[in-house]
């Protein structure tokens, strides 16, 4: 399902929690919603999941509004940052509830995933550890086979191996069923190898929204050492958009056609050089800097 | 939810039913104990009490406990069913499900109504079985009526509790709000009345008659009261409409407020401010009134009591509403509460001052009851059980005197609760106005020799006060089940009423001072759904015959055998009236000195008791027996005690 958010506002009293949000997430992709605590990520996720009604604007899945629309909601699962289960309930009973609620529920998948994660179906969920609870929440969510998963801080409390396994299952569902995922996080590195596109929120607004493949095709990081530092022409020739200089070593972000970058670099007789892909943090450092925001003020990790 | 066309979601119904399953089981068990088991116990061993007949409306009379249990259950039912709204995680989870909010609420309502109705149906089936097997007196119609009424009362409470659930977030707050909705108006009015009684003299002693509106606005009271008084269709309809309105409002609040403010304690801040202010006023009145009554030092101590009460009540209310002992103060809330308190006191002082000083014009009064005794009567039942004129006198002279006495009492009254030795008088005035309304005033700070009490005594000096005689005025009513004389010691036949009334005029021949003030006996009449009590004269021939026929002696009936001190007085006709007035004013020692009373020795007492047992009374004579009530002890010299009237009774003897 394609997610389209247009001019969404959401306020609580006089406080605007999210403001003029425009967002589009293509079917079968993972979108990362990044931002510091209090940026408005959870509120936006709740608007996206139909828990909150937008004060203005629309949230559509394949052109259909989600708020109070059971047809759309039956294909959308929202996983809270703290998984919720009914009091005293077992995984099996919770699965029964999900089965009654979500039309695509798969018993087979539930049995497979329960066995895979090693959670006994008759174990009381509230007795589980934080990480186990999150695994149980993922088992239920994946078994419901939603077309859209909205995940709020999805990997908190999971160990690295479990994160990897869950990411793999998610990727399988995206590949096999075209599932769309929107995951919010305040952790850039965690989302780095997962997302197809990212947005960054601050003060209730989306400051930045890009496809990562676009950025990686047009931007790269160049580390280069000279006997003597080059003149300004070097930077304009290479279309450097951001640079740091330490002694005779320059680290810069280059934008534009990077296919013949090596050819351009060698003209300046560097002692050595290395062309690297950009990390998410570097992309944001550059992009947010352009927008006038210091990344350190927005993402704290 | 496999079928999108299904109106009901079985999973959601199953979830909500599971939430309240054990609560419903407890309700059902209590229902069965409260009705079928209790009725079985009451009617169990008929052979042991062959004379026992099951009252006609036993089921309704005994269902009060079940109705109360059911109303409490209905409130808890709503609290637990809507508990998902109280916590952000559960609220988000439930609202992320593919179910509309309105549909969720419909499922809550269906579950709740089912949880109410099913146990009642089971209880009704058990009652039917009892009817068929061993209690035929409980008719199927009665069971049907009880079932419908129980469902009605429970659903009204459930509906209101459901609406309350959309106003707050937190199960304890939900409980508080249900209690406040149900009882705050009654509590505020009761405490206002109590505070007024503590601060003003001249307030009506009849709280119930002054509180009809607020009692009608208290559904639990209405629900239980109707079991005994009969169903009031208008009141029931009003509450049914209120229940429907509560449900519609619940849907509206859910639709428009959407439970998005789940992290706040109150979904509407203005509601919190109003409730804080009004509940603080109630707390202020409770503490201030308690201080006024228990520490009756001065008006200043009362004012301090109310001030401290307001502060303490505000802090407690904030703790409850903020769900924490560590409260956060809000200027808005403090200012709002202060404004409400100031407005309350402005209305309180102006309203009650006018109330206690209001004296009707004699031309507006249809009839009046005025007495220096305490009144036991209830206005509503007078017309039903008594002849016209009972207690109330329409004579113009009496009305004029009553109005004059009332005016004098208004001028003489003082601050209540701080009594002086002189303030022993009591004045009860009840007017029936020509426009159909009633006006009741009670004064308790009057001196016994005050102008108003003198006027009342003068009214009773001329002739026997027939208007106040219970047996002279009571009707032969088909609902009367029993008639008791002399502190419930003689169960009289109802034909005593006719005999008494046939001899009533004889009382008019005696000295009014004697028959109005001595030989007064308590009479109690039991009715199917009521009880009445009053006073008559022992000097009536019908009463004397009834006593003579009894196995008990007068000494036992009137506790003369338990009297430790007895005096006799022989007075001239001229002295009699003054003596009676002094009896109400002087201590027994002062009275004995003043009138040279003869203190009886043990032998004389025995002789006197025999005379009393032989019914040798003489209201036409001048000799009085003044005997102490049981457990009377002669006060020490430094503590002379109150007036003789409080410790001694009088009989006119031969």
TrEMBL record, chain A:
GO terms for molecular function: ATP binding; ATP hydrolysis activity. SMART domains: AAA (SM00382). Keywords: ATP-binding, Nucleotide-binding, Transport. The keyword Chloroplast does not apply. Residues 3-228 form the ABC transporter domain. InterPro entries: AAA+_ATPase, ABC_transporter-like_ATP-bd, ABC_Transporter_VariousFunc, P-loop_NTPase. It comes from the Bacteria. PANTHER family: ABC TRANSPORTER ATP-BINDING PROTEIN ALBC-RELATED. This is ABC transporter ATP-binding protein YtrB. It comes from Jeotgalicoccus coquinae. The lineage of its organism: Bacteria, Bacillati, Bacillota, Bacilli, Bacillales. The gene is ytrB_1.
TrEMBL record, chain B:
Keywords: Membrane, Transmembrane, Transmembrane helix. The chain crosses the membrane at residues 20-43, 63-85, 105-134, 146-168, 175-200, 233-254, 274-297, 303-321, 333-352. The keyword Membrane applies. The keyword Membrane applies. This is ABC-2 type transport system permease protein. It comes from Jeotgalicoccus coquinae.
